[in-house]
Amino acid sequence: MSSYALPIAPRLVKGGIVTMDPDTSIVLGVIALQYNPDSLSRSLQIQAVPGGTDGVRVDALRLRGPAIETIKLEAEMDATDQLEFPTQYPVTAQYGLHPQLAQLEMLVNPTVETLMSDDSLANAGTLEIIPLEQPLTLFVWSSSRVIPVRLTDLSITEEAFDPKALWLNAEHIRGLTVRELSARLLPIVEEAGFEVTPEKMMRVTPLIRERIKLLREVLTAADFFFVDELPAYDPAELIPQKGDMAMAQKVLTRAGEVLTGVEFKHDPLDQALRGAAQQLGVKAGQMFQPIRVAVCGRKNAPPLFETLEVLGKETVLKRIGEALVRAH
């Protein structure tokens, strides 16, 4: 039995926003940042005393008070991981990120209860109504950096969502390292009933990372790496562009002969198959398509030479032989 463990990573403390009752100091809500921003900007506006018209020099050295600090940051929210497991995250599956967005927007809007209360006072003829009071807002950046803030600007950009308005951020998947993504994909593949070693999953992951938007799509993008027998496919798929079945048979026969004696590494595979194409008098694309369909069961698949390398010589030759049977 092989073992597989990821390196121990430091425990990350997430920043966020905490709202408190200004009178009782009771915590009303906590908005944790899903991902800590890579950076934030801080600007300080000096509170200088306006210069006098008489040119008194001392005015330029005086301050009316502490500088006004403005903090700007961009926070990213992503529902991709939760949507992979809708039974565990039913709220996310139904509403996407709307609850989190609503919580943020409540920081810059009065509550419905407060508005209704003020409306009742106005209808009762109250002459003066105190402006609406918001909770005390604290920005928590670390255990030693907790400061009261007032939100002055909030802008939201929604992108990468599906027709149901659920956010699906493929950029998050592409941003993971191969090791991190492989560790997330492996349990999904195993749960589907495939027996896959962590080492093989690490080899498959970089080939499909650009092809999936959801983690569970590994089951359709890479299934041919995990099965012993390919599911049935239309033999017509073997026919190369501007070719016929006879060309497909000729290509597969020659590929089986050439691949028997070649090292299953990218460069030797590339050289051997391109050389075979020249010998047969066909274009490289016409050589590669029948092989790709034979070993993957479809035309849309990861790069051919890397795929052959991961599948291995025994599996590739076996599938090419089966494809020749289908082609007759």
Describe the structure.
With about 325 residues, the chain is of the alpha+beta class. It folds into 3 domains: about 10-45 and about 65-80 and about 95-115 and about 130-155, no CATH class; about 175-225, Helicase, Ruva Protein, domain 3 (Orthogonal Bundle), CATH 1.10.8; about 235-325, Arc Repressor Mutant, subunit A. It contains 13 helices and 6 strands. It has helices spanning about 80-85, 90-95, 100-105, 110-125, 170-175, 180-190, 200-210, 220, 245-260, 265-280, 285-295, 305-310, 315-325; strands at about 15-20, 25-30, 40-45, 70-75, 135-140, 145-150. The chain has a 4-stranded antiparallel β-sheet, with helices on one face. A hairpin with a 6-residue loop joins strand 1 (about 15-20) and strand 2. Helix 9 packs across helix 11 (about 285-295) and helix 10 (about 265-280) packs across helix 12 (about 305-310). The longest helix has 16 residues, at about 245-260. It is elongated, with a radius of gyration of 31 Å.
